[in-house]
Amino acid sequence: MEYRNIAIIAHVDHGKTTLVDGLLKQTVQLGHGEVIEERAMDSNQLEKERGITILAKNTAVMYKGVKINIVDTPGHADFGGEVERVLGMVDGCLLLVDAAEGPMPQTRFVLRKALELGLRPIVVINKIDRQDARPEEVVNLTFDLMAELGATDEQLDFPILYSISREGKAYRDLENPKDDFTDLFDMVLDHCPPPSVDIDAPFQMLVTNLDYSEYLGRIVIGRVKRGKVKKGEFVNLMHKDGTMTKTRVTQPFTHLAMKRLDVDEVSAGDIVALAGIEDAQIGETVADLADPEALPIITVDEPTVSMVFQPNTSPFAGKEGKYVTSRHLNDRLKKEVMTNVSLKVEEIRPDEFKVSGRGELHLSILLETMRREGYEVQVGAPQVITREIDGVVSEPVEHLVIDVPEQFSSTVIGVLSSRKGQMVNMEPQGSRVRVEFKIPSRALFGFRTQFLSMTQGEGIMSHIFDGYFPWAGELKTRQNGSLVSMENGPSFAYSIFKLQDRGQFFIDAGTEVYVGMIVGENAREGDMNVNVCKNKKLTNVRSAGADEALTLIPPKRLTLEDALEYIGEDELVEITPQSIRLRKKILNPSMRK
Question: Is the whole-model pTM more than 0.85?
Answer without folding.
Answer: no
